[in-house]
Amino acid sequence: MMHVKKEISPADLAFDIDGVVADTMAMFVTLARERYGLVHLTKDHIACYDLHRCLNLDSGIVNDLICLTLDDEHTLQTPPVPGAPKVLNELARHGPLRFVTARIWPESITQWLHATLPDVPFDRIEVIATGAPESKLQILKNMDIKFFVEDRLETCKLLAQGGVQPLLFDQPWNRTPQAESFPRVQSWSQLSEWVLP
Q1: Among 127, 119, 109, which residue's Cα sits nearest to residue 23?
Q2: Residue 59: CB partners within 8 Å, gap ≥ 6?
């Protein structure tokens, strides 16, 4: 596993949102329990990014849960990943916070960020929705971002090939041998040790 020395400037850093800042899979699991009675399901069951592949559930149920999880109502109810608000509040004192998400529409997740980070001025939060993970690389390069915190392994590979250093945020779905070539962020407190001045 690669390690990062404390040499990342906040100005060189951007973040994915789902699975990094927003605990989106926690909302998915909550909805699976409430709507379909899947009380046994936990985030640890989500051992791969493709939910159809790693959950032994009817495809229609998975699709319904994904749509519910990402709709405006449930986006606004999603809990933050532990530690994220505290570190982002500190980082915002050093410059704007930049987020690049594969969501199609940025409005509800931007509203969620403002609600989650009420002490951060509106003009210090920038959200770009790409509509597809594969579109992140060019946007990050255009923004002159050197480090990107991401939970999807395939996106990390793409970024690394394109010259952006991915920081893989630890989640059950990215604990595979292929992930060993990327620095793994175990928690937001660890990330703060690498980044905060």
Answers
A1: 109
A2: 52
| Per-residue pLDDT at 4 | 59
Q: Which of 12, 13, 44, 14 lies closest to 26, judged by CA?
A: 44
Give the pairing of strands 147-150 and 165-169: parallel
Of the options 3.30.160.20, 3.40.50.1000, 3.40.50.1370, 2.10.25.10, the CATH number for the domain spanning 10-22+80-195: 3.40.50.1000
Concatenate the DSSP letters of all residues of 54-74 into one string: HS-S-HHHHHHHHHHHHSHHH
pTM: 0.94
Phi, psi at 126, each rounded to 5°: -120, 125
Active site residue 16: yes
Query: What pLDDT is stored for residue 5 in this prediction?
Result: 56
- Average pLDDT of the segment spanning 26-44: 96
- Break the chain into its structural domains and give their ranges: 10-22+80-195, 24-75
